[in-house]
Design brief:
There is one protein chain. This protein has 168 residues and is mainly beta. 10% of the residues lie in helices and 46% in strands. The chain has 2 helices and 11 strands, in the order ββαββββαβββββ. The strands form 2 sheets. The protein has a 6-stranded antiparallel beta sheet with strand order 1-5-6-11-10-7, covered by helices on one side. The protein has a 5-stranded antiparallel beta sheet with strand order 3-4-2-8-9, with no helix packed on it. Strand 3 and strand 4 form a beta hairpin.
Length: 168
């Protein structure tokens, strides 16, 4: 199931438990905002980083120049698809990338992200979470999630998927 897509004007995207969204204030003019501190941690060679936030950890997604989709399947309750190049059938390609994921072909990472809420929210990190013009919400099982990656290419479309699953 596709929960929606998000594009920003050069800002990274942030995934966090929805019950903590009120605590993300985004960018301000001080130069020392949550957003500024988070962006200083971005590594251009990594598609995401884990950042400390409100006594937990949030997932900062380095897809500022692309489109990020949020989806789920029966095997993968939370999929973050980073679309960096795409052709004319992006929604179809996103669905195909999500539906064709196979656990045996995922590249596991050592990373874990705690999402102890009934819902996760994805939005442009420059905005205060409750004011972001686009906020994607997805129901989740409260748990700590493992992160694995998978690359997908078809025609001119290139998608990197972050597959999040609750730890056993």
């Amino acid at each position: 199931m596709l929960h929606g897509t998000l594009a920003t004007d050069g800002d990274p995207h942030l995934l966090l438990p929805a019950n903590l969204a009120h605590a993300w204030r985004g960018h301000d003019e001080s130069g020392d905002s949550q957003y500024d501190r988070a962006c200083a941690l971005i590594d251009d060679d990594r598609p995401y980083i884990l950042i400390p936030f409100a006594d937990t950890t949030a997932l900062l997604i380095n897809n500022a120049d692309g489109l990020t989709a949020l989806a789920s399947t029966p095997d993968f309750p939370l999929l973050i698809l980073l679309c960096r190049e795409w052709g004319g059938h992006l929604e179809e390609d996103i669905r195909h990338a999500a539906e064709s994921l196979c656990p045996e072909f995922l590249d596991p990472t050592p990373d874990r992200v705690p999402l102890h809420a009934d819902e996760a929210i994805l939005f442009g990190a420059a905005w205060p979470a409750n004011e972001a013009p686009v906020r994607l919400r997805v129901p989740i099982h409260p748990a700590t999630y493992t992160i694995a990656t998978s690359a997908y290419a078809r025609g001119s479309t290139s998608i990197l998927t972050l597959a999040l699953r609750p730890e056993p």
